Amino acid sequence: MKKFKWTIMTLVILFSVCSAFSNRKTFNPVEYYWNGSGYTQLTGDYGDNFACKANMAITCTYTFDGAHYTPYRTGQWVSTILTDQKTDRKSTK
Amino acid sequence: MFKRQILLECISALLILLFLYTSLSKFMDFKSFTDDMNNQPFPNSWTPFLVWFVPGSEILICIALLFERTRMAGFIGSLVLMTLFTIYTIIVLLNFFTYIPCSCGGVIRRLTWNQHLVFNLFFVALSITGLILQHRKHFKSILITQTNSFV
Q1: pLDDT tens-digit map of A12-49
Q2: Predicted-complex ipTM score
């Protein structure tokens, strides 16, 4: 029984570590958002200066490889103005 | 007895798989995780605590689930953490907050909130089953020890 237990646990640990390594982001690319007429480069940090509201159906930000814009984050793009509103809302609580 | 033990090992293995994978993903992409935390509807002053507490407690639960003596504590910790995540998901689905990005580790961040709820409920059920089985096993071993001491 002990052999069975430790075989399973070793496999599970190895699988978790390998999966986490294979799915990790290796770099933080420059991100762009669609402003309605063109792509605008984003400045600042995600979470601090801009965010993507939970919505899996639309693309929030894109990356640019020199020729094509590729979807990067899903959700509805929101600017720092909303982030500030969030901070204001918290401070009034 | 043997079947129950196999079931207990499988439940522990599944919970370890979930917690170890998500905690490692959070640590490996720590900046993204911190940004996601800053973007949650609770105060940003909580972020320095939460970014260590959440993955840290997940790793502690994994260690507890590995060993027979601490497994009960592991199941309790797992149930508490998964229940908290589920309550948070339900609050999100009820549109209590207007501003919530997902803050999960690894590929789990690609789930929708509805899928997240089902996923969390499955692991809550798994934790409860593990807790009951472990409790019964513990109770039986005490009973056997007491019977032997009388004989």
Answers
A1: 999 999 988 887 766 677 888 888 888 888 877 776 67
A2: 0.80
For B49, other C-beta atoms within 10 Å of its C-beta total: 10
Are A25 and B32 within 8 A, CB to CB? yes
B16 to chain A: which residues are within 8 Å by CB?
9, 12-13, 16
Q: Say how far apart CA A6 and CA B105 lie, in whole Å.
A: 26
Give the mean pLDDT of B80-98: 86
- Could you tell me if B85 and B120 are in contact, meaning their C-beta atoms sit under 8 angstroms apart? yes
Q: Is A52 on the interface with B (CB under 8 A)?
A: yes
Give the pLDDT score at B51: 92
| Ranges assigned E (strand) in chain A | 32-34, 39-41, 51-53, 59-64, 69-74, 76-78
Q: Is B64 exposed, middle or buried (CB count within 10 Å of its CB: 0-12, 13-18, 19+)?
A: buried
What pLDDT, in 10s, does the model give residues A60-89?
A: 888 888 888 888 877 777 775 444 444 444
B38, B91, B92, B104: best mutation site toward chain A, by most A Cβ within 10 Å?
A: B38
Q: How far off is chain B from A66, nearest CA to CA, in Å? A: 24
- Put simply, whether A82 touches B (Cβ < 8 Å) is yes
